[in-house]
Design brief:
12 helices, TIM Barrel, alpha/beta
Length: about 250
């Protein structure tokens, strides 16, 4: 059985002090985790502080970064390396988020490099793929997403893939208030699992967790999580509100 995985992507929100207050409130109000694995992905400036709070208060949540470079060091001004994240004992790293692809020239090739680097430094990647509205309306969404998936997985070994989380994010549903229907989301997640099975075999495909991301909120999380191939959610705006994020966890 795949353990449900709920990750909160804070994006470019909260100072390190605001992040600390959030974690204290979150910990105080979190009565249970509903059998889920929970991950908080704050901005880089809050990673160390939140990690310290998690460790000192023994909060049973993971911590993730929102991005990283694939090189372990070098002349890459403004970038963060996997070696730096590993030294902080970060658990997860989001790779290839649609906003990174749209605004910062991320490609399937760079995503593939980053996924490889994450595994090489004991980080668990949450690899994002998804289509925009034009591709969705053209009827070629599945073809496009599965092509992304294959390119991003290129050359990855079976033992690595079992530790991968794939996040299906229809770009047209991110930050827009629009959400794919539960059927649309399930159909794509099932297609992703089938594609992984065709590359690595059914056992590995069954082990990979597939999240849905795109305007996830308390009002739609239960319907999404009831789908057999949706194993969790990559939550954006709702994850920076304690009550909303807890309601999503306790769907």
């Amino acid at each position: 059985m795949r353990k449900p995985f709920i990750a909160g992507n804070w994006k470019m929100n909260m100072t390190h002090m605001e992040a600390a207050i959030f974690m204290q409130d979150f910990h105080y109000d979190m009565k249970n985790k509903n059998g889920c694995e929970i991950c908080i992905c704050p901005p880089f400036t809050a990673l160390r502080g939140i990690k310290n709070i998690i460790d000192s208060d023994k909060i049973d949540v993971a911590i993730g970064a929102q991005n990283m470079h694939w090189e372990k060091s070098g002349a890459f001004t403004g970038e963060i390396s996997p070696e730096m994240l590993e030294a902080l004992k970060v658990d997860y790293v989001i790779i290839g988020h649609s906003e990174r692809r749209q605004y910062f020239a991320e490609t399937n090739e760079t995503v593939n490099k980053k996924v490889r680097a994450a595994f090489a430094h004991n980080l668990k990647p949450v690899m994002c793929i998804g289509e925009d509205i034009d591709i969705r309306q053209s009827g070629k969404a599945e073809e496009f997403v599965l092509s992304q998936l294959a390119a991003c997985l290129d050359g990855l070994e079976e033992k690595s893939v079992t530790g991968l989380t794939v996040a299906y994010e229809p770009i047209w549903a991110i930050g827009t208030g629009k959400t794919a229907t539960s059927k649309d989301a399930e159909d794509m997640c099932a297609a992703i699992r089938k594609k992984i099975s065709s590359i690595y075999g059914p056992d590995i495909a069954e082990a990979v967790r597939i999240q849905y991301g795109g305007s996830v909120k308390p009002s739609n999380i239960t319907e999404l999580m009831n789908m057999p191939d949706i194993d969790g959610a990559l939550v954006g705006g709702a994850s920076i509100k304690v009550d909303d994020f807890l309601a999503i966890i306790n769907y």
